Amino acid sequence: MTTRPIRIAPSILSADFARLGAEIEAIDKAGADYIHVDVMDGHFVPNITFGMPVMAAVRSYTAKPFDTHLMIAPADPYIAAFAKAGADSITVHAEAGQHLHRSLQAIKAEGKRAGVAINPATPLSAIEHVLDDIDLLLVMTINPGFGGQTFIPATLDKVRQAHALIGARPIDLEVDGGVTVDNIGEIARAGANVFVAGSSIFAGNDPATYASRIAALRAAATH
Ligand SMILES: O=C(CO)[C@H](O)[C@H](O)COP(=O)(O)O
Ligand SMILES: [Fe+2]
């Protein structure tokens, strides 16, 4: 179990895009800690979502941090633009470029929290030499590209190992993909403290359900 604060980060990938501003306002009021923003380019992952103009357009709907998950390659040419559009943290994939350290420095140069994500098949060794350069480590618990997938069980042990590797460093350990009220407790006990959840919060897109779902996830992660 982690000693870091538990954070619930609803992924707007599963929001109703036709009402995106209102959906963000609703999850803010429902108790979201971060707003997880999934950017996909149809190249690094086999899906396309949205980019900087959409982020900038919805920025005014909440003061909560925008946790930006860049599933794009290359990422470096867009880091400054996402910072300007309103990102608070910017996470790049270790697999998305040849110069991860340079990407992380570019994020820091914008004054933003720097994150690195690794796919389920990528070993932790890919990030062990940048641990002192990051604020957030995102362990993907599904193959990125789509919401609503099933948590890959083998990633649980990776979360455990990542938690040990991070040690006392002030790094958020985030998981993304297939997080539900039924598995979040086990993932928290493995050491994660930031939980992205898309379909398990937005299913049905009824704002009246969001607060109880976020509360249930938080309670299950805490106990
Ligand atoms: O990065 C992502 C997909 O690549 C999303 O953040 C993730 O899929 C969240 O959705 P769900 O909770 O439904 O799995
Ligand atoms: Fe994500």
State the separation between the terminal residues, measured CA to CA: 10 Å
The CATH superfamily turns out to be Aldolase class I
- Quote the beta fraction: 15-25%
Nearest-integer average pLDDT:
98
Choose one word for the global shape.
Answer: globular
Architecture (CATH level 2) name = Alpha-Beta Barrel
Bound molecules: ribulose-5-phosphate, fe (ii) ion
Class inferred from helices and paired strands = alpha/beta
Strand order of the largest sheet: 1-8-7-6-5-4-3-2
In short:
This protein has helices at 20-29, 52-58, 79-85, 100-109, 155-166, 184-189, 199-202, 210-222, and strands at 7-10, 35-40, 66-71, 89-93, 113-118, 136-140, 172-176, 194-197.
Helix and strand topology:
Blueprint: E1 7-10, H1 20-29, E2 35-40, H2 52-58, E3 66-71, H3 79-85, E4 89-93, H4 100-109, E5 113-118, E6 136-140, H5 155-166, E7 172-176, H6 184-189, E8 194-197, H7 199-202, H8 210-222
Parallel strand pairs: 1-8, 2-3, 3-4, 4-5, 5-6, 6-7, 7-8
The protein binds ribulose-5-phosphate and fe (ii) ion (FE2).
GO molecular function: D-ribulose-phosphate 3-epimerase activity
Pathway: Carbohydrate degradation
Binding site for substrate: 11, 69, 145-148, 176-178, 198-199
